[in-house]
Design brief:
Helices cover about 20% and strands about 30% of the residues. With about 550 residues, it is an alpha+beta fold. Helix 3 packs across helix 5 (about 255-270). The radius of gyration is 27 Å and the shape is globular. The N and C termini lie far apart (about 85 Å).
Length: about 550
């Protein structure tokens, strides 16, 4: 038995951390991922903001896939005397009243706590409580448990010119890395591919592979194994983010296990869109997180801020783009979808689900749109001022309203998702659960509205939060005393494609017109594309032109 409801705990007030004792959580004998705040994160605002504080300490996180259970460990440290204190009576409970079973070991003051998952996409708080009176508890610590759906993926390892591939070792290791976050990999090997092109020409490899008559599985990713030695660690493998193909140089690794970790690292880039911790976005240094899979220290750890990218269904769809698998930009169904969103406006949404059913839709709230040879059932509406409205009258789209091309892109394995319009962009997001809209009739219950509203909010907040973090990171840099000490007047105009621009100023100026240096940063939150334009005032340039002229003379 993992836990039970306790009505007394449910109504207790235990938000504040108690000073009498501390319970510190750790992974213990648990199988699924566990993560604690790393002091190195102080250098990175983007990562730091992914961790919440309880009292003055950062909260640890546990991942348990939906429908599964696991254990964590916790250690008790007492700071003050507590009358008639019995450590074995410490409870591990949620604010809703679920008390999880635990075993106390008096020899080392530790607990083994049995935890169950929540619903997909949920975060569950677990507190360490000690009862001192009627509905009154001391709160010794906090853990947050995240639950996500499990997924299985396929990678095909392609041997170039007979390069050796140890399938069993690679499959075992990459699953040791990804299974704890609820992601599984099946591995297949294609050992029949001759290639005469350049070793680091990924595009050349792809073209040659397809030209060889290979059947491409668009549900899989491909890694070409090249029997050569790389010049440095950052050249041992290459797989662009969100892409289907990559390569590995197999020579120079100490053993097959280290090679397998490199495979897991490249899959992190290509399939899950993970970046290096030392990329400019994060601001950490290379080898500062050697235990992390995406650094270069042969580590295998995936941290909570990476779970958010791999698993969070509220984030924009970040699946790799498969060559030749995107729907045509002139597909009439996509053109109709774009026209429908344009007509609904900025608060509009479309819920789409691929349906095999040929049932005639007579309820007035659903549309059927053919896209790329598949049939999608759609529900349209708006979410405005916390009120969700489903469109129950036909939105007639004239042929003349259809554009020649669409900005909307749908992949063949996109079975159920949301489309929203933000500014001039069209945002695609996964949903947290399946909606029953394919049958002969649809029942729009209160829970249907509640869940759909939650999914829409997660989609929009996922994008606005990203922009907010970018803004905070820039503001933090602008607070550097350098700008004030050197009298540098700088204006950075952050121009999101999906909203109004934001002016960020260095200390000492009140408006962009007073600046000497201007940076205009165009940000597309949907695609992570960034474009920077720089300009300087005439007075600023004049000062330096004179100096340059003197040097030239």
């Amino acid at each position: 038995k993992i836990g039970q409801e306790d009505q007394n705990v449910k109504y207790a007030d235990f938000a504040a951390k108690s000073t009498e004792a501390t319970v510190t959580f750790s992974k213990g004998d648990g199988y699924y991922a566990f993560d604690e705040y790393n002091a190195a994160y102080e250098r990175s605002l983007l990562i730091r903001n992914k961790y919440e504080k309880f009292d003055d300490n950062y909260v640890p996180y546990k991942l348990i896939p939906t429908g599964k259970s696991d254990v964590v460990s916790a250690k008790l440290t007492q700071h003050k005397n507590i009358r008639d204190f019995e450590p074995k009576n410490v409870l591990f409970a949620t604010p809703k009243g679920t008390v999880f079973t635990s075993n106390y070991n008096a020899s080392d003051s530790t607990y083994a706590i049995n935890l169950s998952s929540g619903e997909a996409g949920d975060g569950m708080e677990v507190f360490a409580l000690y009862k001192i009176g009627s509905n009154k508890y001391l709160n010794f610590g906090k853990l947050v448990v995240y639950s996500y759906l499990e997924h299985t993926h396929k990678v095909i390892l392609v041997s170039l010119n007979g390069a050796a591939i140890d399938k069993s070792t690679i499959e075992k290791k990459i699953n040791e890395v990804y299974n704890p976050v609820g992601e599984a990999w099946s591995v297949e090997v294609d050992s029949d591919f001759e290639y005469a092109g350049a070793a680091q020409d990924l595009d050349g490899m792809k073209v040659a592979y397809i030209s060889a008559g290979k059947t491409i599985d668009n549900q899989a990713v491909y890694l070409f194994f090249v029997n050569q030695t790389a010049g440095s660690r950052d050249e041992t493998g290459f797989m662009p983010r969100d892409q289907q193909y990559g390569y590995i140089f197999t020579q120079g690794f100490m053993n097959e296990t280290i090679l397998s970790i490199a495979v897991a690292h490249e899959l992190g880039h290509g399939y899950f869109s993970l970046k290096h911790p030392f990329d400019n976005d994060y601001g950490l240094m290379q080898n500062q997180l050697n235990e992390n899979l995406m650094d270069y220290g042969n580590g295998t750890h995936l941290a909570k801020w990476q779970w958010d990218i791999i698993k969070d269904p509220g984030l924009v769809n970040r699946l790799f783009e498969k060559d030749g698998d995107g729907m045509l930009t002139t597909d009439k169904g996509l053109l109709e979808l774009q026209a429908l969103l344009d007509k609904l406006g900025q608060d509009g949404f479309v819920l789409l689900k691929k349906c095999d059913s040929k049932a005639i839709l007579t309820d007035g709230v659903r549309y059927r749109i053919p896209i790329g040879g598949a049939s999608y059932t759609c529900i349209l509406g708006t979410l405005k001022e916390s009120r969700l409205n489903v469109q129950n009258t036909p939105l007639n789209i004239l042929e003349s309203a259809l554009r020649k091309e669409t900005k909307i892109k749908i992949e063949k394995n996109d079975n159920e998702f949301l489309l929203l319009k933000q500014g001039d962009s069209y945002i695609k997001c996964n949903v947290t659960q399946s909606y029953d809209i394919c049958g002969e009739s649809v029942n729009l219950t209160e829970s249907f509205y509640t869940n759909l509203q939650s999914d829409i909010r997660k989609c929009t907040e996922g994008n606005s939060n990203k922009l907010k973090l970018i803004q905070q990171a820039i503001e933090e840099k602008l607070n550097n005393p350098f700008y004030n000490e050197k009298g540098v007047r700088l204006c950075i105009r952050l121009n999101p494609v999906q909203g109004e621009d934001i002016a960020l100023l260095s200390p000492g100026i009140d408006k962009c017109e007073d600046a000497e240096i201007f940076l205009k940063i165009d940000v597309n939150i949907e695609t992570d594309a960034v474009e920077v334009n720089i300009d300087c005032s005439d007075d600023y340039l004049k000062e330096y032109v004179e100096k340059w002229q003197q040097e030239a003379d």
